[in-house]
Amino acid sequence: xxxxxxxxxxxxxxxxxxxxxxxxxxxxxxxxxxxxxxxxxxxxxxxxxxxxxxxxxxxxxxxxxxxxxxxxxxxxxxxxxxxxxxxxxxxxxxxxxxxxxxxxxxxxxxxxxxxxxxxxxxxxxxxxxxxxxxxxxxxxxxxxxxxxxxxxxxxxxxxxxxxxxxxxxxxxxxxxxxxxxxxxxxxxxxxxxxxxxxxxxxxxxxxxxxxxxxxxxxxxxxxxxxxxxxxxxxxxxxxxxxxxxxxxxxxxxxxxxxxxxxxxxxxxxxxxxxxxxxxxxxxxxxxxxxxxxxxxxxx
Length: 299
Ligand code: GUN
What we know:
Blueprint (H helix, E strand, L loop, with lengths): L3 E2 L2 H23 L4 E7 L3 H16 L3 E7 L5 H12 L6 E4 L9 H5 L13 H8 L8 H14 L6 E5 L6 H10 L3 E5 L6 H5 L4 E4 L17 E4 L3 E2 L11 E2 L4 H7 L2 E2 L7 H19 L11
Parallel strand pairs: 1-11, 2-3, 2-4, 5-6, 5-7, 7-8, 8-11
Antiparallel strand pairs: 9-10
The protein binds guanine (GUN).
């Protein structure tokens, strides 16, 4: 194995430390305590784990956490009414509605009802447009985390060739926008891309966000490429009753033979997502109060 391991767990702890420091200063100097509201509809087990973890880390950095757990059968009108209350609550600086939502709820409608300045997920169409046009936006947390890891590794990303595998609104598309903003030459590859291995092999930076276990293998990579693995996939258990192994979208063993640096799964991009959610909540708080934005915690 040759590749440097990019330790997202340690980097995320650093980000949370910076957020906590700035939160303490906001409290001491301005009497402001940032607040994050998380809305969970239904009982999806994975979502419950994420929401619990978000609440815990929010409190740990000194922010206020508001959790709203709603029944799976909650009507769209009731959910929209809650969001309206949160939009108008000055103690709430950030609002996150955990996705996926139950099928009877219109995700686009719900997300676009969040006040854009409180949209710490960066999913509101206003924030998507602001990011695409190079204006001050709230930026989706997972791509922001990937960008921070890449900037830390390279310093400048200018002129690098980057391939983003996956075209989701949550990761692929905003990731491509962020890399473009940092002056990379960006390609988005997806399930219909022809000769995808050859496309990926041209890249200095590979961001894999497709949700297919171990799809990208070492022979797809240019030697020395930096690989950011966003995937979290659970393999079938090898024994009855066992828990399947967690793997990324990249076949770690073969990729690490060829890559210059690589994020592991778990312990790579995963911990960065919540750290960036906290960073975004801090950024939103600073903006609404007309204060300087936290350095190194924004795109
Ligand atoms: N579900 C999976 N990832 C995310 C995310 O980043 N934000 C929200 N709101 N829901 C998610």
